[in-house]
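Worked Example 4.2. Consider the chain below.
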Amino acid sequence: MDRKPIRYDADTWLCIRNDPAHPKAIIRRFRDVKRGDVYLVIKWDVDPAKQVLMASATTLERANELVHYDPTPTGRERFAGYPDFAGEARGKQ
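Applying the procedure from the previous section yields the following structure tokens:
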């Protein structure tokens, strides 16, 4: 499943993955006079002091590809924010 990042402002995008209420990462665009645009992928945390630079890319699309989904107990991606799949017991890890 490939989700597009949500544009926050002219140079910032939020990447939502498993948790629909909290971003997984922030992508920030910076203009480099020599190299052109640079997109920094930053691990999101509500505390800005805990945000960490994870990677950089030359395009928004590549930066978005670098933000992965968290693995689920079954190895399958969650669907539409629901915590488990049909036939799986709740609370099983």
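Residues 60-65 form the longest helix (6 residues). Residues 85-93 have pLDDT under 50 and may be disordered. Compare this with Example 4.1 before moving on.
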